[in-house]
Amino acid sequence: MATASRVVLIGGSAGGLQAILTLLPGLSVRLDAAVIIVLHRQNSTDSVLAELLAVKTSLPVREAEEKEVLLPGTIYIAPGDYHLLVETDHTLSLDYSEKVNFSRPSIDVTFTSAAGVFGPKTMAVLLSGANGDGVEGLADVHEAGGITIVQDPDTAIVDFMPRHAIQAVPVDHVLAAADMAPFINDFAGLVVG
Amino acid sequence: MNRNHISEQEVSMLLNDVLERYGYDFTEYAHASINRRVNHLFQLDRFPSFAEFRYRIISDADYALRFVEEITVNVTEMFRDPQFYYVLRQQVLPVLATYPLIRIWHAGCSTGEEVYSFAILLKEANLLHKSVIYATDINTSVLEKGRTGIFPLSQMQQYSRNYMEAGGVHDFSSYYTANYEYAKFRQDLGEKIIFSPHNLVTDGSFNEFQLIICRNVLIYFNKTLQDKVLRLFCDSMEPLGFLALGSKESLNFTSVSGQFRQLDGKEKIWRKHHL
């Protein structure tokens, strides 16, 4: 199968899981983009997270493995305690370097790395959270010509992260989690047939 | 925020310079991580342009060493992934105990936190006195730190928790002396550890081991280099020896997968077949 030509990045921290659970069921099963989720959490709950998300979508959900090829219509979760990066050949790399914004995985690291590879074919979604991780990455996605979406702070469980992002970065859409799926489906395009 | 960015091609040029001038070969490292680190250093040291960055690396050997040390990842902790250490304690140490002399290679040991962790396991199994641990890294300044056995005191609470989760039953603080912000680990733990430089990319085998530990090093290499290093490990290991990797690393789909069998359970520990 051909590697994904587009990527949808979803980053969240405190309260982000609820938003992801809300938006996932709306994603089309014929999504023509790879989806990468970076969620801050305790590193012991990994397999639980993939299982939790898998219940909400028919798309395959898995924890990212190093050197794995990004496939369209697949959801990859950044593993606990590693940064997740994207290589130019659309494979994934893991990195156990210093925490960024007190976080590993860091949303910034994945967003910036993916934006450098997919450029305008990147969509980044930043959700609820209590720290500033993701804002710089979102700016890099915007600079690369990608689309930026931020959760409407009034609908986020913790509004610091989305509020900060809206102030710091040109954001294309500010949306409630329940309204995000159509935008993602539209951006990703659908596999015909 | 895309500041002054160095492209992947420019990073390749630097890596070639460092290889030709100084013999450090990063050309087979996975790109994404190394690009990020090179860019980070470029910004940290405030070079006005790529040309000046490159000139400094080529012309200043001390700076080139800094470059090498900064682009390699040296993050580590004691008893990282406690369950992994628990399984080593339960399943690997009893086998090692049957050897008259236990030889262990900890490759890519960084500042040595995991080496001391393993020395504690050996001590508690009453095996340390007949063991030798070769702890190697490409980066000589982290080895220097490892040799001192001195780690930040602020980490000890976390390490103590990890130690207990790994099946430790003693008072973790009995293994070190606290002095200001530092914890100095007991002399007897370090006595059997030999810290020594070794470059997995360019250096060969130097002994035969019953256990090789190499955690969170292979993730920075491309497939070709991973295969090469795994063959080096395979060639440096006695039949029925153990190979322990990081929690996201695997022998699956590598050139040596046929020569090893993974231990039951989910820990990344393999045992080499008998010939």
UniProtKB/TrEMBL annotation, chain A:
One of its GO terms (molecular function) is phosphorelay response regulator activity. Keywords: Chemotaxis, Hydrolase. One of its GO terms (biological process) is chemotaxis. The keyword Hydrolase applies. Residues 1-181 form the CheB-type methylesterase domain. The active site is at residues 13, 40, 133. GO terms for cellular component: cytoplasm. SUPFAM superfamilies: Methylesterase CheB, C-terminal domain. Its EC number is 3.1.1.61. It catalyses: [protein]-L-glutamate 5-O-methyl ester + H2O = L-glutamyl-[protein] + methanol + H(+). CDD domains: CheB (cd16433). This is protein-glutamate methylesterase. The lineage of its organism: Bacteria, Pseudomonadati, Bacteroidota, Chitinophagia, Chitinophagales.
